[in-house]
Each structure stands twice: as structure tokens, then as C-alpha cells.
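User: Continuing from earlier, I have the next pair ready.

Assistant: Great, send them over.

User: Here they are, in order.

Assistant: Folding the first of the pair now:
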Amino acid sequence: MITAFVTFRYGEDFSAAKVRRLAENSRARFEGIPGLRSKLFSVYPELREARNVYVWDDPEASRRFFTAENRDCIAALYGVQPIIEYAEVCALVENSAA
């Protein structure tokens, strides 16, 4: 398993409300993506940042998802370039019955 942390750093043009709307409107697009276990959308108003966290069962699926073309689409959607970092998942706790 691998985790991808996708961070968006804004300047003065930051809007937490816009980030929240983006998350709500984008949520359904990620349901059923092969290899994607979960995705979390978050916003840090005090830092003027948004961060999305992806947990992938298949590391290669993650790398196929974040192509240069898809990164450009993500940047256009959020209005800033994404910073993508990967980390190995050492252990995972899931308490949801869903």
C-alpha cells in the first residue's frame, strides 16, 4: 500500500469555501477507481492550503493516476500546481463499516 499526499499552497487568492465546494463536487469521481482504497479531502485555512490524501492498494495504480496530463487537470481545477508526495503505508486502521 502507498499513500499520496497532494498539497495545494495558495497565496492571497485562497478561499476555504471554494476548496470545500470543490471537494463536495469532486467526491463521486473517485468512487470505484481501481486500486484506490480511500481518498480524503481536507483544508487548512490558517495555512491557506488544501491537502488530499489518497490510500492506494496498488502503488502502480497511483503512479498511473498522477500522469502529467492529470496533474495539469488537477492544477486547473484547484488553481495552483499540486505538490505530490508518496509514503509507504506501514499499517492501516479502518473503523468504518462502509
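And the other member of the pair:
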Amino acid sequence: MKASASLSALIALMIAGWTGNYIAGKISLQAFPPVLLYGLRISMAGVLILPAYWWERRQRTARSWTLRDVPQLVILGLFGVALNQFLFVLGLSRTSVAHSSIFANTTPILILLLACARGLERLTGWKLAGVMVALTGVVSLRTLDTGPQGEATLSGDFITFCGALAFSIFTVLGKPQARRYGTIAVNTFAYAGGALLLAPVTLWQSAGFDFRAVPFSAWAAVFYMALLPSVICYLIYYHALAHMEASHLAAFSYLQPLLATVFGVFILHERVTLALVVSGLVIFGGVCVAERAR
């Protein structure tokens, strides 16, 4: 299905919004510790997503939930959305924008492997070849490109990879529930539930923290992370998914590492090495092979 001009514009906004998330994260991490930043972001997102949730409820586009459904919705949302975003922030605090964007976008490979492990897909020769090429790129990226001291660390890359794994598990295991209750409801429970569960930690992190010393740019970055990537981009993604094939939509996500790396160079003055470029191309070459074989 071919995307219309308006849909293409929305997809462009989605990609730009998710790409800017890496830069906003780095800016806000200069003023906030990672756990406090995550607590503020998820709390803001929980409030900002409520209008979309109320609109969906009025449209009656998904099944209404009951009190018995709340634990399942909270667990599903926390695992797929809240945990993914917490690990994203924590990983970004310990690695570069380029590494974070590349490792975060290994999701298609992880989803394929999980789907094959559950018997939902068959691991063909081409799929296996794509997986092996992508994994070779991951190993070479981690081995050959460490960047300046402290910029890209093994722990940061691993945490980011775990975040991608959490979202992949949610995608494979939680897809029926997301269709059943509606993606907006799942995200709302994720943000609201996550904010409530993390409230004691957020308050503990806030105690003694000098909020008056936080510059406006850091507050703007936190608000950006809560509104655009967490709420608006997700809504655009699910809207686009209803109007075009998932494989076509996924292809646009391959632009994120390139754009994030460019932004990281010009805004944050991060360094790009030949090993980073080659490893990134190998990873996404493998992802493309595996995706086309599906």
C-alpha cells in the first residue's frame, strides 16, 4: 500500500522525533542522573498520553478493560514500554549516540529469533544468513570501535541491547493483548503504572537534588522526550501501521542510526570512525537480508 503525502509527512515526523530522542537524552543527562530523568520522563508521558487514551475510549476502538485486566495490562506495558525506555536512558548515559542508535535498532533481528524460537516463524537459510551477518557487525562494532575514553562503553552498549530485547519480547508475546485492549491503553498503563511504581525512587532521587540549577535546555529536552518520542511518535506509528505494510514501515526505521549519528556529530561533537561506519553497514545489511527473507 503506497503512503499518501500526509502519511509520509507523519512518518517523517516520527523518524525525526525518535532520532531526536537520542540527542535530547544526552542533553538532559548532563543535568539529571539517569534514574531521576527516567522518573520525570515517564511521569510526564503518563499525563500527556491521557487525552489520547480518553479519545480512544470514546471511539470504542478497543475492548474495554476491567479491574481483573489491570495487572496484566500493567505488567505488559511495563515490560514492553517502561522497561525498554528505562534501559534506553540508562544505556545512553554510558555510550555514544551512534552506538545507542545502532544497538537499539537490532530489534528486527531479535524479534525474528524470538518468533522462530516460539515456532511462529521458520528460520530459513536466508534468515539465518542475515542474522549471522548482523551479529558479525555487532561483534565488530563492540570490538573495533570504542570511541574516545568514556564515550562508548561495553556496559552502555549491553544495557541498550537489553532494552531492544525487552521491546522485542513484548512485540512477540504481547501482540495479541495489544490488539485486544488497544495500543494506546497498553502505553497508558505502562506510563501511569511505571510512574506510580517508580514514584518512591523518583522522590528519593529528587531529595537533595537542586532543580533550580537545571538549565532550561535540559527541562525542554525532558519534555521533548516525554511528548514526541513517548506519545506522538507511538501514535503515528500505530496509525501508519493501519495504513501500510509493517515491512514498509520498518524500512523507514533504518534511517534512524544514520540521522542520529549525524546529529551526534554536529550537535554533540561525537567522533565517527571507519570501524563505526563499516560495522553499522554490516549490521543493517544483515537486518535487511533477514527482513526480506521473511
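Worth noting for the second one:
The mean pLDDT is 81. The radius of gyration is 19 Å.
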